[in-house]
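In the design runs reported in the main text, the only information available to the sequence generator was the tokenized backbone. The following block is the verbatim input for one such run; it is reproduced so that readers can re-run the procedure and compare outputs position by position.
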């Protein structure tokens, strides 16, 4: 038995697998894991697995560049390709030519992935949404000028707000060149000085509306410096243009309704403002009249004649208060005087003498004790009424 090298065995197995038609040009179903795209070479590497087994897979850049969506880990797919051996490592794997989502269309998966990408980039954030101008003078419309959409917009603007100028830009709204055409139209309308831009078309199939689901149109709307209304003619599904625009309308007619106010509503508002202005003027006049009366009254109060009169009244009042205070003071003093006189009268010796007492004087001195007298002394007796003189004949001690 000959001795073989590892390279010989791997090469032999590689040839045998390539000759086996049962594993060439096959379709394999499984779940993607460990997905890696080499951004330098463009090759894609991943593992395809089911509940019981796994299979290495590689997709070269020539095939990977044709994918309309980006595969992700956990995605259930159906691969088309061939089984072969990678001779260097002795590993067999499937060389993938194409990948199809299992249970979902490629376009649907690609659209969802693009929506998620743009959402992460912030294109759908409410913080970037701008308010529409209340009364725009110039309105842009980027759509096919041969379609029904522009006629609907014109009819609504004529009926609703004939004061506005419509700047219409012809754009291809479906087909391969539509995204570039729409973006050029937006830039032209913005450059022309439009204050708000309507971008859209009439209804159609999902394929007809695909231009409004592209990254290019999304950034064309997002980078526009004036508010944009998306008016793609469909009611149910939101396109990427709807999500990126500052305002979304289900039809071009509805977009025109949003873009401008109603002339009837403006007229009614003007009438209301006129009534408010008249009421405000009347109220202001009334307030100023009241203020004039008040100021005039203050002026009269501050006039010299009025101040003189007030000072005279104040002087009379002070005189009256002073007179009353003085009379009160005199009255209080009289009461005090009478009270003290009464007290003095009660303490007066004369008052005591009226009750039968008398005062005895020896010379000019009041005699208070018998010790001060001697026989033969002459004394003066003062009575309650009158005086008498006596001579001491006897002294009892």
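Verbatim output:
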């Amino acid at each position: 038995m000959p001795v073989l090298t590892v390279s010989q065995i791997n090469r032999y197995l590689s040839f045998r697998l390539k000759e086996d038609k049962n594993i060439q040009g096959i379709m394999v179903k499984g779940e993607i894991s460990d997905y890696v795209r080499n951004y330098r070479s463009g090759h894609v590497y991943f593992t395809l697995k089911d509940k019981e087994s796994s299979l290495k897979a590689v997709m070269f850049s020539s095939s990977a560049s044709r994918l309309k969506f980006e595969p992700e880990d956990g995605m259930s797919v159906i691969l088309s390709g061939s089984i072969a051996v990678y001779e260097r490592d002795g590993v067999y794997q499937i060389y993938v030519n194409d990948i199809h989502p299992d249970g979902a269309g490629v376009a649907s998966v690609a659209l969802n992935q693009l929506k998620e990408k743009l959402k992460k980039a912030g294109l759908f954030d409410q913080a970037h949404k701008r308010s529409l101008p209340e009364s725009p003078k110039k309105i842009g419309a980027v759509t096919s000028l041969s379609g029904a959409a522009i006629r609907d917009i014109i009819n609504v603007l004529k009926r609703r707000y004939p004061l506005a100028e419509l700047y219409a830009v012809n754009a291809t709204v479906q087909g391969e060149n539509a995204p570039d055409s729409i973006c050029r139209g937006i830039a032209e309308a913005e450059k022309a000085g439009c204050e708000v831009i309507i971008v859209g078309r009439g209804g159609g199939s999902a394929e007809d509306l695909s231009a409004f689901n592209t990254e290019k149109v999304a950034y064309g709307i997002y980078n526009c410096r004036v508010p944009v209304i998306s008016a793609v003619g469909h009611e149910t599904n939101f396109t990427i243009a709807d999500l990126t625009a500052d305002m979304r309308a289900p039809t071009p007619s509805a977009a025109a309704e949003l873009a401008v106010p109603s002339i009837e509503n403006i007229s009614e508002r003007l009438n209301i403002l006129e009534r408010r202005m008249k009421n405000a003027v009347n109220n202001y006049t009334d307030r100023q009249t009241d203020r004039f009366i008040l100021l005039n009254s203050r002026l009269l109060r501050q006039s010299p004649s009025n101040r003189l009169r007030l000072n005279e009244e104040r002087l009379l009042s002070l005189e009256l208060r002073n007179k009353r205070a003085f009379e009160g003071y005199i009255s209080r003093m009289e009461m005090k005087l009478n009270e003290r006189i009464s007290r003095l009268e009660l303490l007066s010796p004369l008052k005591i003498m009226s009750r039968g007492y008398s005062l005895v004087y020896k010379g000019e001195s009041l005699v208070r004790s018998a010790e001060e007298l001697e026989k033969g002394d002459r004394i003066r007796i003062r009575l309650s009424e009158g005086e008498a003189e006596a001579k001491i004949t006897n002294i009892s001690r």
